[in-house]
Task: structure prediction
Amino acid sequence: MNIKLFFIVLFIATMGYSQYTWTDAVVTLKNGTVLTGEAQIPMQNKGIGSLVKFKERVKFRKEKGGKKTKHDIKNVKEISFNITYKEKIDGKRVEKTRIAKYVPVVYKKKRKKDVACFMEEIVIGTVSLYGRSVNAQGSIGPMSQAGTNIPMYHNFWMSHNEFYVQKNNEQATLINQVSLSKAFKKRAAEYFKSCPSVVTKVEAKELKKSDLKEIVELYNENCG
Result:
C-alpha cells in the first residue's frame, strides 16, 4: 500500500469512530446479563474504506467517563438505543425519543463460521426487514444526530443505506442499497416470487424501493 493510500484509509478508519458518540442504551447479553447505561457500535466501511474492518461488537459504559467494556457480537442478544431527536410540529421543534432495537443478523453462512452484524429491526415476521448504515465511499450516508452512532431518523426507517430481508433463520439477503438501487424491481420480484400480490405491485411500479417496508408487510399479511 503506497503512503498516499495509507493515509486515505487511515482517515476513513478514524472517521469510522470519531464521528460517533455514546448513546443511552440497554444491552442484553445472551447469558441473561442486562447492562444499562451508554453504548456504541462501530459503523463498517465500504468502498475504499472496506480495506479497514472493525470488529463487530458493542462498547458499553454505565456513564460518561465510566469504565468501558467490549462485548463481541456472538455474546450479544440485543441492544436497545434510546434516541432523542427533534421534530417540527406546528412550526415548533419538539424533542422526542424513540427506541432503536439492534440485533445480530447473519448475512453470510460459511462452512466454519457464520458472519453476523448488528442491524436494526424494522419489520419482524415470516419475512423480516433489517436496516444498517455503512460508510459508503462516493455515496451520501444517513444523517446523524449530534454525532451519535445511530442514524438520525425523524421516524423514517429509510435513513439506513443498506436493507436486508430474512426468511425464518436463513441467511439475510441484501435487497437494497445505494449502489444496487437500479435493479431493485428485479431483485424484489425474484425474492417475493411466491407472493403474486406483491410481485404484481412491484412489477407495475405501484410499490418501489421507497416502499420496502410496505412490501415486506404486504408479503407477511398475504403470503406469510
In short: The longest helix spans residues 3-18. The helical segments are 3-18, 184-191, 196-203, 212-223. Residues 4-20, 138-155 have pLDDT under 50 and may be disordered. The chain has four helices and twelve strands.
